[in-house]
What does this fold into?
Amino acid sequence: MPKNLNNVSNGYMGAWNAAHVILTINGHVIQGFGQDDMVNISYTEDRQSFKQDPQGSFTKNVNNKTGATVTVNLDQMSPCRLQLAELLDNLDNFSLDYRDDAEHYATQYAFVNKDPDYQAGNTSGNRAWTITCLGLNHDTVAGNGEY
It folds into this structure.
């Protein structure tokens, strides 16, 4: 049976607080997220790959590409949807900075490439804004929220 991580010998695992999430786009703090998921960050490439010759020898290849896709889930009534729509209309790059108590991601080269899908129903919907990031830097935080 796995060891409980919240004990005297292993320490306290930490607590998540969604109120500590700060997403800044083009210098403006984003608010009015969707009901469940706020932000999803996915790097485009693996950090390393391997190739094998016919005799069984391997070569490790380090990938230094740091392109990523950031999906920002906003409630369709969020006032920040207008800001993202303006960034899309202008086709300019902008800065993106995401931080919470454990992670920090940042780039100066982010782009909105298309309007999010739209649906209407019984309650306000979620609009998933897809942002392409070039050179997304990542820092892991020790758990105390300091970078």
About this structure: The first strand starts at residue 22 and ends at 25. Residues 80-90 form the longest helix (11 residues).
